[in-house]
Please model this.
Amino acid sequence: MRPLSSFGESGFTLIDVLISLFILAFGMLALARVMAQSSLSEVEASQRSQAMTLAQDMSERINLNRKNAAAYIGDYSATWGPSGSVDCSAMAGATKDICEWQNLLAGSTTLDGTSATGAPIGARGCVISPATNIYVIAVAWQGLVRTTGSDSACGTNAFDREENRRVFSTVVQIATLRDPLPPVPPGP
Model:
């Protein structure tokens, strides 16, 4: 009878398999973390895009009603009640624009069942006038990841932490056109 020889053995030992699984598990955990960060970044980018759209909407409303631009100054929160958005159809001018903008701040353009989802989380709007015929339109919302606080006053202390408050703002300047020459009096 011949003894078994050990020089032709092949295959993996149990320790080789355990080390491979350990390395694979760390790689999978790192991949899961990257995917979670990617999802958060995607939501933040979507909210910023929605805020930019809201600010542009108010900017256009002010431009279309230049003579009454000062009527838009104020701080606005979303208007969304148990029955949905506020009916603005009986209103006119700046009052109607503000009512419709508050509905947009609530996300009334996109509904998921009865929930409005078409705006940033906890959106608030601000319109200020730092100088004559200059209007700053800002939209503040609740971010998901901490960053440095915004220098805008819009939405201050309205969210869980100042580090989560995001603000997008734009400036509208209303031109004041004047006749460069004084009127000429009629001749004799």
